[in-house]
Amino acid sequence: MLYNILDADSAKQTLNEVFQRTNSTEIGYKPWPSAGQYLGSDMLKFRCRHITTCDDGGNSFRKLGILTPKDVLANQDIPLASFIEQHTGIRYKDHHFYHGKNKLSQVCVSSIKLEDGGDNRVNAFLNGGGKLGEYDGYDQRPEIIFNCAADAGMHLSEILNIEKRWQKRHKPYAITFDVSFIKVYSIAGYYEGDEFEEDEIDFFTIMQRLMELALKVSSGKSVDKIPITLVENYTVPPDDIVSITPLSE
Q1: What is the pLDDT of residues 141-188, one digit of tens each?
Q2: Does the pLDDT value for residue 115 go beyond 70?
Q3: Is 139 helix (H, G, I), strand (E, B) or coil?
């Protein structure tokens, strides 16, 4: 099953599929054969939207998929990695961060959060939108530019100038992709991976919450953007990308 609430019509289709499976309009009424079946397979997938920028119409994402921040910095063939090194001196090589030729300690890269045990995750949104200005600036510059520049000791004015240089040459895009439930780490306000592992919340409760969310979206109610994060070190493969479209004004 595909859980898709990127717009009201998609949310309605998601609800209709659940109702057809259960022959019931009561949300949460035995909508799944078993939690184990879904956790152990790709039967349940989420459609998400990753917001980013590029200057090649999205061809790099069609070729490489959606990389984690660490994978981006580790590949100097990626324009963002070379841009960050050129303007901040920060690079990632052989499992370590460097500022110029100097190896950085974990403390020095606290804002990048990519050392072992850090937050090396792909982020996306579960619902809505697609217009400029709706994504709190993430549609205009990658957050990692700010983080690397801050770790290089730059002042805010310098960081903003670097971001403007990036924005002049790159356009914002929405990358829509599908991801299995077992590759999802968290859905803000609805599901946290560590909670599930500790049995503090069960699978059916999670899905009941998400079906209630789908009901709100399908009825046209205003719902804040729902961030979703994937599991540590997981790269979205090109085959799982559904579309790459420029964000409209």
Answers
A1: 788 888 888 888 899 999 999 999 998 888 888 999 999 988 999 998
A2: no
A3: coil
**pLDDT (tens digit, 9 = 90+) per residue, 43-67?**
789 999 998 888 888 899 999 999 9
Strand partners, 244: 175
Phi-psi region of 171 (alpha: psi -120 to 50; beta: other; left: phi over 0): beta
Strand order, beta sheet including 102-103:
90-93, 96-99, 102-103
**For 12-17, which contacts have Cβ atoms below 8 Å and span 24 or more sequence positions?**
12/218, 14/214, 14/218, 15/211, 15/214, 15/215, 15/218
**Sequence letter at residue 139:** D
Structure tokens at 161: 């100038």
* H helix intervals, 32-155: 35-39, 59-64, 69-74, 79-88, 143-151
pLDDT of residue 203 exceeding 50, the answer is: yes
242 burial via Cβ count (<10 Å: 0-12, 13-18, 19+)? middle
Going by C-alpha positions, the residue among 106, 112, 114, 183 that lies closest to residue 142 is 112
Supply 43's token pair: 């039967």
